[in-house]
């Protein structure tokens, strides 16, 4: 998934995709949501992530899934 809101750099957590400008792995937001946590809980747990950045990453993921989907 290409996103200007996510970076994957070998020098940052061994290349794990993180929110740009942080060391917070993107997978953490999905783990929170899978666990039933709200976006608010995620943002409280990771105050270095702005609401706008979190929403943009989720929207980027949604668009990537839609682009990869095969028409029915």
Write structural notes for this entry.
The chain is mainly alpha-helical. The protein has a single domain, classed as Winged helix-like DNA-binding domain superfamily/Winged helix DNA-binding domain (Arc Repressor Mutant, subunit A, Orthogonal Bundle). The protein has 3 helices and 2 strands; from the N terminus they run E-E-H-H-H. Helices cover 46% and strands 6% of the residues. A two-stranded antiparallel ribbon has the order 1-2. The chain is globular, with a radius of gyration of 13 Å. The protein starts with 5 loop residues before the first strand and ends with a helix.
Question: What descriptive keywords fit this protein?
Answer:
2 strands, about 70 residues, 3 helices, Arc Repressor Mutant, subunit A
